[in-house]
Predict the structure.
Amino acid sequence: MMPVLWLLLYLVALFLTGHVIVSLIFRGEPRSLTECLASVAPVGAGVLSLILFWVSLAGFSPGRITLVLIVIIFGAGQFQLTRNHRWHWTTTRPSTPVSLWAWTCAIGCDAIIAGCVAIVAIHAVAQPIYEFDAFAIWALKAKVLAHESLRPRPEYFSDPAFSFSHQSYPLLVPFIIAGVYGAIGETNEYLGKSVFLILYLAFVFQIFTALRWKLNRSASLLLTTLAVSLPPVLRWAGAGTADFVLTVYYAGAIFYFLKWLETERRSDLVMLILYSGFMAFTKNEGFAAMLLIAGVMLVFAVFARSKSKLASFGLFAAGILLLQFPWLWWGASLPHTDENYGARLRPNVLIQNLDRVGAILAEFCRRTLNWSRWSGFWFLFPLVAILGFAG
Amino acid sequence: MRKDLVRLFLIATVGVCLARNCYLDFIAGNSLGRELTESLRDPGAFQELKAIDGIYSDLPSGENALLQFKEFDAENEELAQEIYFRSCYCVYPRRIFVVPPGKIINRGSDILAAELPPDPDWLDRHRVGGIVSFAHEKDGRIGFHFIKRTLR
């Protein structure tokens, strides 16, 4: 029973951190309650993970004292916000009577989403960590970080016998799990994965919020259900790997990037910076995606010949650098003895392996065209593209 | 009229796609929903991982283990890899020694390529309190033996 109570302390820290930061970013702007539900947990998890990383760099592994301090600091911030009536999450009521179709759609979609949540819940909380990457890479790192602080550097990060666990991978997900271990005072992989369930719920609201921006309620709900019930999403959401967490941050970064392009609001830019920073701290692929967003942002700013967009790009770059600097500095000397794809992207290596491209492409096409493995989304995608093109 | 038809067609398509997702999530033989239901019912689920974790239950805290694979060939690389990775995860912060210090381990072949001979002094210096040997049994299956050591 006690570990569950300590887990609650961790979750309070996560939600408080997320809510205070998101409230400060959206200060004075009316935002929907679904946007609040979509952003509080991912931002909270990201910020909490960064704080635990900085504290670990200072010589303290994740523990109850750190979490209690976080709750006190952000609790005081929340108290201040509540006192100033900064509760700006809005809910809208339909202006016209809800049709039978809308009710049927809502009930059907909610039932499917509930089924998906149940699957992720069982996968995350009632199953051990059994996926190969989950225990060999992410959960092992979480154990290391829960056991030792990053100063002095744990032997794990330089021992070649642990090369298989990709010692140079970013640490957001391991710190999310290590935070739970630190709170409950033991290694419990069931409770450690509970955060993934919360992130999945946030993902549901995230997709709905993004779609609701442009579509009506029923269409948004239908497409949200389609997205969150995709088999790969369900398969990996509660597995304990970093792929789903990366998806959550990537989706958030894309949404706020598009919003910023349209509205140029500072709050959307700050959310974009946060999501991109967390993305880069989750996986190396996230770092590449962040660079991609930065590149597209720069192209838009240059082609629009907009000074404000260029200034926003500067702010984006500065923000990312600020968030990433401790990790880049600390991680610079980590061994790259595993796959290390980045180092292999050299012209001579590419030319040397050019003869393999044919076989790779053939296999890629064979698998892509195997429609029996297609999930619902891929049937819809070409159709919507044709309709969009036609009309 | 045309707009309504397009709308109806789109809704029907989304419905079909959703049904497809639901089939792949809950009903198909290899769906996650089915896998989870079966694993919750089956007391033997994750038996292999539990067996690996169970090997080290007698290893005292603060003591490490030496892992050996006897007569393993290329066919068993994946198994050796899984056993070593899981063992490392299971016993941390204690250590699993499988190859001489300084050797890089990324996959099963790295493990099988370099054997660590059990020299008693070395084992004592590295606080190795148990030796786990995986080998082919007479019936062809792979089994293991755990030998407890007393540290000097």
